[in-house]
Amino acid sequence: MDTLYGSREVVAQLPGTEAEVKNIAKLLVGYKVKTTALYGKDATELSVKQLNSPSILHIATHGYFLADVDQVETTKVLGVDVEAAKENPLLRSGVLLAACENVFDPEYHAAFNAENGVLTAYEAMNLNLDNTDLVVLSACETGLGSVRQGEGVYGLQRAFLIAGAKSIIMSLWGVSDEGTMELMTLFYTNYAKSGNKQRAFNNAIKQLKIKYKEPFYWSAFVMLSR
């Protein structure tokens, strides 16, 4: 899935993500893998929350990690109460989905029981992914998290593992839109052929290194398994 964030252009669109998802969907269909792709306004927070253990979940969008919540001067940041975010690291990272731009207005309050377009790590922890083999977070900074004494690293990686995912591919810093698209296409091509996700990921990195010598284009992504 990829997203359309809103009509006011508060959040930059990612033109490479739609091409990325379409390439992957076409590739998987060619290998007779049942695929559902959601684009633009259909890639909503609710659609993610309603998923029932897909074999692979691929999300191509913006990710975020709020490292300096103590310096925020408003009561809310990205739709989350600042005081709550200070106490709960799982509220400080997430991904942006369709129609999320309202959360960048500190005065915005979502209607009761309505989704605001931001999937936090706290919410991701409650997804139904018990039979999900792989989650791919094709977004900036999705691998980052907050460290608590004695608790390890929190964030999206912890959330998706708790939700049931067997493995996760995610990024540790801002990534190139174009490089990410190529990496993901290579990964799925290799994975569809071999059925071995770790080998497919390693080979995709090696292939991308041939085209891009600069590590920025391929070194941000990691695969984690439990």
Q: In a few lines, what is going on in this structure?
A:
The chain is α+β, with helices and mostly antiparallel strands and 226 residues long. It contains seven helices and eleven strands. The chain has helices at 15-30, 45-49, 82-87, 121-124, 156-163, 177-194, 197-211; strands at residues 56-60, 63-65, 76-77, 80-81, 93-96, 118-120, 134-138, 147-148, 152-153, 167-171, 221-225.
| Rounded radius of gyration (Å) | 17 Å
Task: Give me the oligomer status.
Answer: single chain
Helix content: 25-40%
Overall shape = globular
CATH level-two architecture: 3-Layer(aba) Sandwich
**Beta-strand segment tally:** 11
Overall number of domains: 1
Strand fraction equals 15-25%
What name does CATH use for the topology?
A: Rossmann fold
The low-confidence runs, each spanning 5 or more residues with pLDDT under 50, are: none
Give the termini distance in whole angstroms: 24 Å
Structural class: alpha+beta
What's the total helix number?
7
Identify the notable features of this structure and list them briefly:
226 residues, alpha+beta, Rossmann fold, 4-stranded mixed sheet, 3-stranded antiparallel sheet, 17% strand, globular
Describe the structure.
The protein is α+β, with helices and mostly antiparallel strands and 226 residues long. The chain has a single domain (15-225), classed as 3-Layer(aba) Sandwich (Rossmann fold), CATH 3.40.50. The protein is 32% helix and 17% strand. It has a four-stranded mixed β-sheet, with helices on both faces. Helix 1 runs parallel beside helix 6 and helix 6 packs across helix 7. The longest helix has 18 residues, at 177-194. The mean pLDDT is 86.
